[in-house]
Design brief:
alpha/beta, Rossmann fold, 6-stranded mixed beta sheet, 4-stranded antiparallel beta sheet, about 25% strand, globular
Length: about 280
C-alpha cells in the first residue's frame, strides 16, 4: 500500500466512495442556491445519516433556514450548482411531495394556518401516502385498518407533546398559539415517522416547559432510529436531547466550523464574535 502512486491512491478513494457502505442517507455536496439572483448558499457541504443527530447554529441571515427549504424543494429558491443526494438518488429535480416520500420531513419555523383542512384528516392521508413509499425502508410503520385505530395513535402522540385531544377536531394550525404550532409540528413528525427530520428553530418563542416537551418528543424519534437536524440559535434545547453527534456553525451560506456538544455551549456563552462572525446581512 505504501508504494501506491498518486493516481492509484485517487482511484482507491473513488472506489471507496462508490461502495454502498460509505453512502450516508442525506449527502449535500457543493450546494449553491439563490433567491431572485442573490446567492445565499455557497458551495455548502453537509451530510447526515440515519440515527444521527446534528445541530446547525449561526448568526441571523447565515442561510440556515434557506438550507432547510432548499433541501425540501421550496420553489422560490434556485439551485445553481451542487447536489442533494438521498439514499443514493439526486433529488434536485423532485417535487417537495416526492422528497417527502423519500423520507424527508421539515418542521417549519413559521407554520401556516390552513383553514378548511381537518387536522386529523390531514395526518391520516399523509401517513397513508408515506406508508406506501416507506414501508420497505422502515420496519416500524404500523398499518391502521380503521379510523378509530389511527385516532388512538394520534392521541398517544398528542400526549407526547402536551396537546389536548380537542386539537384533532380543529383545522390545521388555525387559531393555534405560537407554542401550540411548534408542538404541532413536532407531533406531525412523530406521527409521520420520517427517516430524516429537519426542524427549523423548534424552540423559538417557547418557554422552558415547552422546550422540554419538544425535546422529549424529538428523543422519541431518535430512539426509533431516525436522523434529526435541528436548526437553532440556542444551546438550551440541545441540552435535553438524548444524543447529539455534531454541532455545525454556518455563515454566509457555508458551514465554517464543526464540533461536538461543547461547541454549542461555547457559542451560548461567548456568542459568535470569538470566531469572527456577526449577523450576515440580508441572507435568510
Amino acid at each position: 500500500m505504501n508504494n501506491l502512486n498518486f493516481e492509484e491512491s485517487i482511484l482507491i478513494f473513488i472506489l471507496c466512495l462508490e461502495n454502498k457502505e460509505f453512502v450516508v442517507f442525506l449527502d449535500i455536496h457543493n450546494l449553491s442556491a439563490n433567491i431572485n439572483g442573490k446567492e445565499i448558499l455557497d458551495n455548502l457541504c453537509f451530510e447526515i445519516d440515519r440515527g444521527q443527530v446534528h445541530a446547525i447554529m449561526g448568526p441571523n441571515g447565515s442561510g440556515k433556514s434557506t438550507l432547510a427549504n432548499v433541501i425540501m424543494g421550496h420553489p422560490k429558491y434556485s439551485v445553481t450548482s451542487g447536489s442533494i443526494v438521498v439514499d443514493g438518488e439526486n433529488i434536485l429535480k423532485l417535487t417537495t411531495e416526492e422528497r417527502a416520500k423519500r423520507g424527508l420531513f421539515l418542521g417549519f419555523q413559521y407554520p401556516t394556518e390552513i383553514p378548511g383542512v381537518g387536522y386529523s384528516h390531514f395526518l391520516r392521508n399523509a401517513y397513508n401516502i408515506l406508508n406506501k413509499s416507506l414501508s420497505g425502508k422502515q420496519e416500524n410503520r404500523e398499518v391502521f385498518l380503521t379510523v378509530k385505530e389511527f385516532h388512538e395513535y394520534l392521541k398517544k402522540n398528542l400526549d407526547n407533546v402536551g396537546l389536548q385531544t380537542t386539537f384533532l377536531s380543529r383545522y390545521l394550525n388555525e387559531g393555534f398559539s405560537g407554542g401550540e404550532k411548534k408542538r404541532s409540528e413536532v407531533m406531525q413528525m412523530l406521527v409521520l415517522k420520517p427517516i430524516i427530520a429537519i426542524l427549523d428553530e423548534p424552540d423559538s418563542g417557547l418557554d422552558i416547559d415547552a422546550i422540554q416537551a419538544v425535546a422529549e418528543a424529538i428523543n422519541i424519534l431518535i430512539s426509533n432510529g431516525a436522523g434529526v437536524l435541528i436548526i437553532t440559535h440556542y444551546a438550551r434545547i440541545l441540552r435535553y436531547l438524548s444524543k447529539l453527534d455534531k454541532v455545525h456553525v454556518m455563515s454566509k451560506g457555508r458551514i465554517i466550523k464543526s464540533g461536538g456538544k461543547e461547541l454549542s455551549e461555547e457559542l451560548e456563552v461567548k456568542g459568535y464574535g470569538w470566531i469572527g462572525l456577526t449577523d450576515d446581512t440580508d441572507n435568510k
